[in-house]
Amino acid sequence: SRMGSRNDSISARSLVAGASAGLAVDLTLYPLDTIKTRVQSSQGFAAAGGFRNLYSGLGSVALGSAPGAALFFCTYQTMNKIIGRHDALSHAFAAGVGEIVACTVRVPTELVKQRAQADSSRRISSIVREILRSGSVRGLFRGYGSTIAREIPFSLIEFPLWEALKKAAARRQGKSECSPLAGAACGSVAGGVAAALTTPLDVVKTRIMLSTGVEKRRVGETLREVYREGGVPRLFSGVAPRALWMSLGGFIFFGAYEVTSSLAQKFL
Questions:
Q1: How far apart are CA 203 and CA 197, in angstroms?
Q2: Where are the Solcar repeats (predicted)?
Q3: Start-end of H helices in 119-218
Q4: I want to staple 98 with a disulfide (CB 3.0 to 4.6 A). Which of 76, 129, 131, 135 is the partner?
Q5: How many CB atoms lie under 10 A from the CB of residue 136?
Q6: Based on the number of CB atoms within 10 Å of its own CB, is 31 exposed (0-12), middle (13-18) or buried (19 or more)?
């Protein structure tokens, strides 16, 4: 049917645009992410590698970035179509579901990436073997809960804010939709705000992913552990590189998504 083919076309555009956006931001801003991971590690910035080998673990993120972002945007757009409304609550719900789906790809690649960033002397293949030895395939999903605990609040802030800013920009431009450049700028603001507010959850996720013990670490107890180390400032360690990374990343990510989506619309 015509409606079915239209929905297939929307899904295809979301997959292509999401994959392009994910790759663009991760490959462009990878060194900032490495610095953020090393600042947040329990061993400290210098011991984790300092400014050396800032592209450690790039192979892992390159492998998982495109499918993870593609899955997110495909789910996000599909959920918005199913809900049929375009308000902050529906965007937040769609983004939350999108993160749960995307993290099935994102968590294993993020786990390997962060361990490589915190110890640049190790190869990705040896990190994967160590993870599999210590916890079988389930070990690759260490930190899934803490990643979801970070990503859902992040998306609940970022996507409704992005959509609201785009609507405001479109009104100012006197159009039904804002330009890709304006959409990218809105994404930059939304990403920076969401990143700063959710930094404590990012610190927890980093600690859990970098831990190598067999015991299961919980989000609450890790939050308390970090707080005991240095209070609120320690909970917000890495906030500057994270906010900068997500702000620049938001511009690149949403800009790439908007441009690719617009181009894909002509062919898909």
A1: 12
A2: 9-82, 86-168, 178-263
A3: 124-135, 144-173, 180-197, 199-210
A4: 76
A5: 9
A6: middle
